[in-house]
Amino acid sequence: MKTYTYKKSVALFKRAAKVIPCGIYGHLSPAPLVPATDYPFYASRAKGARFWDVDGNEFIDYMCAYGPMVLGYNDPKVDAAAMKQLKSGNCITAPAPIMVELAEHMVDTIAIADWAFFAKNGGDVTSYALMTARAATGRKKIVLVRGGYHGVAPWAQAAGHPGVIDEDHSTIMYVEWNDFEGLERLVNEHPGEIAAFMATPYHHPTFVDSELPAVGYWSRVEALCKKNGIVLIIDDVRCGFRLDMRGSSEYFGFKPDLACYCKAIANGYPISALVGTEALKTAAAKVFYTGSYWFSAVAMAASLATLKELKRLKAPELMMARGKKLLDGMIDIARSHGYTLNVSGIPSMPSVYITDDESLMLHQDWCAECTKRGVYFTSHHNWFISTAHTDADIKKTWNVVDEAFKVVRKKYGM
Amino acid sequence: MKTYTYKKSVALFKRAAKVIPCGIYGHLSPAPLVPATDYPFYASRAKGARFWDVDGNEFIDYMCAYGPMVLGYNDPKVDAAAMKQLKSGNCITAPAPIMVELAEHMVDTIAIADWAFFAKNGGDVTSYALMTARAATGRKKIVLVRGGYHGVAPWAQAAGHPGVIDEDHSTIMYVEWNDFEGLERLVNEHPGEIAAFMATPYHHPTFVDSELPAVGYWSRVEALCKKNGIVLIIDDVRCGFRLDMRGSSEYFGFKPDLACYCKAIANGYPISALVGTEALKTAAAKVFYTGSYWFSAVAMAASLATLKELKRLKAPELMMARGKKLLDGMIDIARSHGYTLNVSGIPSMPSVYITDDESLMLHQDWCAECTKRGVYFTSHHNWFISTAHTDADIKKTWNVVDEAFKVVRKKYGM
Fold first, then answer.
1. Which residues of B touch A161 (CB under 8 A)?
2. What pTM value is reported for the model?
3. What CATH number is associated with residue A46?
4. Residues A291, A322: one domain?
5. Does A323 touch chain B (CB under 8 A)?
6. What is the β-pairing status of strands A194-199 and A231-235?
């Protein structure tokens, strides 16, 4: 099996490093990947479940742009809706009627939603959720799960990160994931002071396994919050519409007060949303919150088309089934080579680790060997399945996975 | 002259109010406009310097989507560049080469820029600028100008706003605009503690006149910051490329360390940028800062095309001249009716008030009467001129302005 080289990617990255901090920053930065030169740095085009890098290499993409791609790149229905809207107008002095249609559709789709609010980043709406909770309760303190990701605002970053100061966390408290008793203790220690508890529907930190909610965890949390007037905020930015069209909280059987969306809601067109219950609508309206492009109609048209197509396809169920098939096969292949592939999280957004090497070097190498053969796997972040990943893609992936295990077995021995 | 009605806008707004907090929130919210029913709520399409509302009314648009529209709505060159990129791909697992080209072009264009960083909101990059300054200096305190606008993050909002808590301002200090001595006093009172001073190139708050920098203000501020190791950040989000292609700081003759861009950089496609000096590149790289759509290639392609077209047209000079012609004529027309029209700020981004009624009712009414006749003027926010506003538009505007003065003179007397 031929392996890829990334000559043009590397040359372009060198140019980038001169005029962009890190060359490529944030979650797309090649820095955390070891070794960096095993991955392509720049994409020249994308279609369906695939992208092509600037060296002409083709990849089955299991990162899906880290989530936004959910129906396949350049989905014709979504693009047609976006182009139709663009011809009328995008970012105008007044919003377009599509804003109302999209809000109505989200209210019809998401179980807890009585209203919707649109912005650009996931982080726009996690911050807005906290402000809404503070406006509603007149309280200041926020409880988060340690290791959870809610964007890059200073309050959401871990203490000690460059640019983050202690004052950014003066009202933030942490509990461990699944630790209901810990949360209850905090609530009792700070009566009438906690505005909100914010968490992802299940725990999906980077560099370690994902963890599902323990039996009874969410219903106990929901009851605790209700009893104590604490706003329960679900950050569904990463999971949204990959578990359940009605909200990932429905999948796990509970009802938050606010839910944050981004990523999968418009197949890559830039939009995020906060949805909430009627009880919090007035507080949400009181908070002044806006942005230059938040009323842009093209992303709203793309979002409405995406939501309709996700519903039509029963996309969460479809992605779960495809993911399960892919992963079951991969576990078997790993076993045939004497390796253990541990899959955590949910099949449409799996966290995958080879457990036979604590240094993670073998795991990282294996991900890179798959990528160099056309199956794009990152080693440190959960993967994403889209509705565009076909049975043929899965079969091709299995072949590459098999080959990559042979390569690492030769390299690392048994 | 026939006046507009907004039946369909009002009906749609009633639907919106059921499913969206405020119906329309933020800077597009009709709430601050008095009376609200004098303005259209929803745009059905836009082209050049005009938009049409859902009732079919046509407006010459002097708000330009509150800044993003700078070359005219649906500029063919910008849209063609965006569409070409969209066919290849937009939001992908790896960035597109256009990211490097755009960064290089911004570095070539903006005087102080040795590097560029891209995000979505203006507020993304004002927050990132503060974090970069803190990472670079190891200091915490930030000085802002009272009444300045830097987005909706809690640190940027005024104390006491719903959802904003005292802790959000624990490291923020304020000085009055143009008060160099006040800034110097703060610097002397907090030696080695101030990470950054952030301000707009000139002061353009809402509800009051804009104020240009006093002679010598910026050079003294620049020297004070340099002497004390304070990062000087210019928020050029609103003014950027409407004063000078090399940066609004060049227009006023000084050099900041960081400059924030959004609005006019991509003619409505969603992108923002932070640019900075080589000395701050390492600190900028250390801050973890990213978003789901920040690598999307379509807005980058639109931005590159926009910047090239702005340069070709000598857009800042063109908009300044068009604005001056428009405003000079309006001042004369006002005078012919016995009114004083006060214009502050710069001609491409003027702040306009009728000074003959302290209650502002007459001014608000006059803006609404212009709008109802097809010239969209807000009463509480600076206006924007684009390169698409023609001499014919200006003449039509003068006719409407004349008629609106007749109407308010009849209503309010002299």
1. 287-288
2. 0.97
3. 3.90.1150.10
4. no
5. no
6. parallel
